[in-house]
Amino acid sequence: MYQKRIKRILDFTISLCGLIVLMPAFFMLMIWIKLDSRGPVFFKQKRVGIHKTYFEILKFRTMRTDTPKDMPTHMLSDPQQYITKAGAFLRKTSLDELPQILNILKGDMSIVGPRPALWNQDDLIAERDKYGANDVMPGLTGWAQVNGRDELEIPVKAKLDGVYAKHISFRMDCICFLKTITSVLRHDGVVEGGTGEMKKKRKKPAAK
Fold first, then answer.
1. 114 near 53, Cβ under 8 Å?
2. I need a labelling partner for 64 at 20 to 30 A (CA). Which of 31, 135, 166, 188 fits?
3. Whole-angstrom Cα distance, residue 141 to residue 45?
4. At 59, phi and psi to the nearest 5?
5. Is 42 helix (H, G, I), strand (E, B) or coil?
6. What phi and psi values does residue 11 have, to the nearest 5 degrees?
7. Is 196 in contact with 154 (CB distance < 8 Å)?
8. CA 59 to chain centre
9. How far apart are CA 120 and CA 70, in angstroms?
10. Beta carbons of 206 and 107 less than 8 angstroms apart
11. Percent of the chain scored above 70 by pLDDT?
């Protein structure tokens, strides 16, 4: 009952209210992005939705227009060279994700759920299949997001997404939402360069 009906009603209501409240911030960020670098304000990308269907996710553009398309950040040899000044701030604060409120209103996403994978992230998609995580609506934030985010290796991230898929409830969504606020304020788990990078750095032996 919750997953099929109540969750969608809450998603739509909360997102609509959020969009209205955040509209001034939206316009300010749009102006900053436009003045900071050449290119569109928004960035669209093909992502995997529920039951492995596809949709176009919407974000504020944080990279230059010559950045390789459809490539996860962790696969770029030097992602920093492509990130704009405004983009660095937006990514650090997660404000680049705000336009996904429109994806939620449209019904492509939920507020809470596994983060939508890129259409060509076969490793993550395959791992999520093991836990049924591809059969729930992707979200703006999720259980993996508040338990490590970019610090997590793909198998660990997929397993956490599976935990959410198995235990979807109003209580779990509330926990994820509240933890997201804390994580965003503290910039927890944000690692430019991608999945599992923080762990890799921690494992490197100290120079002698």
1. no
2. 188
3. 17
4. -140, 165
5. strand
6. -55, -50
7. yes
8. 9
9. 8
10. no
11. 87
